[in-house]
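Researcher: I've been going back and forth with a colleague about how glycerophosphodiester phosphodiesterase might be arranged in three dimensions. Neither of us has a model we trust, so I'd like an independent prediction. The organism is Sphingomonas qomolangmaensis, in case that matters for your notes. Sequence below.
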Amino acid sequence: MMPTAAKPLLIAHRGASGERPEHTLAAYDLAIDQGADFIEPDLVLTKDDVFVARHENDITATTDIASRPEFAARKATRTIDGQPHTGWFTEDFTLTELKTLRAKERLPQLRPGNARYDGQFEVPTLAEVIALAKRRSADTGRTIGIYPETKHSSYFASIGKPMEARLVAELRAAGWDSATAPVFIQSFEVDNLKRLATLTKVRLVQLVASAGGPPDGAAPSYAAMLTPEGLRAIAGYAAGLGPEKPLVVTAEGQVTPLVADAHAAGLVVHPWTFRAENYFLPTDLRTGSDPRAAGRIDDEIARHLAAGVDGFFTDFPYIGNRARDAFVRAAGDE
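Model: Here is an independent structure prediction for glycerophosphodiester phosphodiesterase. You can compare it with whatever you and your colleague have in mind.
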């Protein structure tokens, strides 16, 4: 069995997105201040083939695009991963045009404090995220890595914008093309990770959800991928597994065999996503009845660390850092 790291990795999910609008340099910078080892940019492409950090290529909910009359005519409906989406899409805008937009909070009802920052921050490029990680690594004396996710890679390939070679080239230009580089590339799709495995030595992570299957149809279901045989197949092209958190510890608090099975296959395990609000927590870890109120996220993280995970994604890196430190201290006292 692969041993768990002495100090599991703290991965800032879209930055410190519990406290700043997600996928902004402000969110990433705050996450680094709060102790994150890795910052996570979801990557989509512009019309002129530049990687930018957005949760989706549909930027309706994360920018002020809907209020910009000069772009009203570009509203469109697209089928992405088999589902119709109506809004504004990054592939219809040049980087120069996107830079005129400003980010806004995606979940204002749950995170009204973040909405105070609406209109303040640009949409960052991957190059800017890399530069930030390198600059803050020098400032802090810690190695700050990036953990990009290729979003809807099959869709982008279908419109003539394959992601893999472009991403590898940009990482290589940053000096990152080895298994020891401070980079993990993650995807819910399978075939794009397999392509990446032929292009780069950077570590790859297969994302899996509790239901459904990979959007590219490369496996019948995520469940089929999580058998011991399926995990061994993943280990043929990836270094890690990124499971939705109930796949590791159920909502009832039961530890599943997944971490042990993944470790036996040679995979590290980085579950997602730990969020402080009651809305996102198991029933027994909620505090009061307000869905926006902070519940017992420290306890949820501790359950997963006790299950042997090698790292975890959180919207609240300072809480993740606190919970991780408490777990490491307790383990040292045993």
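Researcher: What would you highlight for our discussion?
Model: I'd start with this: The CA atoms of residues 207 and 242 lie 4 Å apart. After that, consider the following. The two ends are 21 Å apart (CA to CA).
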